[in-house]
Design a protein that fits this description.
Elements lengths: L1 E12 L6 E7 L3 H4 L5 E7 L1 H10 L41 H4 L10 H14 L10 H22 L1 H11 L13 H16 L3 H27 L3 H30 L1
Antiparallel strand pairs: 1-2, 1-3
Helix pairs in contact: 4-5, 5-6, 6-9, 7-9, 8-9
The chain binds zinc ion (ZN).
Length: about 260
């Protein structure tokens, strides 16, 4: 384990007019002082996960500090996708922060339509069709970027996934047991489950599903407030409740499917 810093420049570089945050990794603290920056994040990075994709393919950079050098022209590139000098598609860093990747502020509240727009822009930049006549390294990089962008998009799009990802960035996670839940809520959930159990018509099930959807929308609003106020404890509690509501919705969907099938 060695201490490295990631330096991010918002809009330091523009590709196809998109302009997104670029990050590079440096090995020493003294290098920080010389670089203009908007945001400096300290991370403990183990070399293995950071380099795994490249290592598997046998493209192992000399050391961590060269991670921001283009593998093709060897020049320093501040753009994490396409080298600004030779335009070669760079290797994927799977540890990249999804918010940075999608060029969104690291907050819970976000506009889904903007996220989808950004997703399409990024997917078009790295689309495998654009690299069919390029080097094999770029072809595999294109597939890697494509799947990473998909994963980042889905994670940030679905509120419960986005919330859990934010918690993870704060070094926390949702507790696996029920100890954090209050008895009243648990009783209510048991009743909800019974209600679903006893519902036998499509209409009954759809009604319960709809009321759960409304409750979930309310929870998402609460979550947004808690994250905005950095109240991670409260945010976690809301997400535990959301998980229950979502699991009841899943039960309803399964039951509806078997109703349709029979
Ligand atoms: Zn280059």
């Amino acid at each position: 384990m060695r201490r490295v810093a990631r330096i991010c420049y918002a809009n330091a570089n523009k590709i196809n007019g998109l302009g997104y945050t670029s990050c590079r990794t440096v090995g020493t603290t003294s290098a920080l002082a010389t670089l203009p920056r908007l945001q400096v994040e300290w991370e403990q990075l183990g070399a293995a996960p950071y380099l795994s994709t490249q290592q598997k393919r046998g493209y192992v950079p000399d050391n961590m500090s060269t991670a921001s050098n283009c593998w093709n022209c060897k020049k320093d590139t501040t753009d994490r996708m396409l080298c600004q000098h030779c335009k070669h598609l760079q290797d994927v860093n799977t540890e990249v922060n999804y918010f940075e990747l999608m060029d969104f502020p690291q907050t819970f509240a976000l506009e889904a339509s903007m996220l989808t727009k950004r997703f399409r822009q990024l997917q078009s930049l790295v689309h495998p069709d654009k690299f069919t006549n390029k080097t094999s390294r770029e072809q595999s990089n294109s597939a890697d970027w494509s799947s990473l962008i998909n994963k980042a998009y889905k994670t940030l799009l679905i509120p419960i996934e986005r919330g859990q990802y934010l918690l993870k960035l704060h070094g926390r996670q949702i507790p696996q047991d029920n100890s954090a839940l209050d008895k009243e809520f648990l009783m209510e959930m048991m009743e909800r489950n019974e209600e679903v159990d006893e519902a036998n018509t499509k209409q009954e099930l759809e009604d319960i599903h709809e009321s759960l959807t409304k409750e979930l929308e309310e929870k998402v609003k609460h979550l947004s407030k808690h994250f905005a106020g950095n109240n991670l404890e409260e945010a976690t509690a809301v997400m535990v409740e959301m998980k229950y509501l979502l699991s009841i919705q899943k039960t309803i969907k399964n039951k509806l499917q078997s109703l349709m099938g029979s």
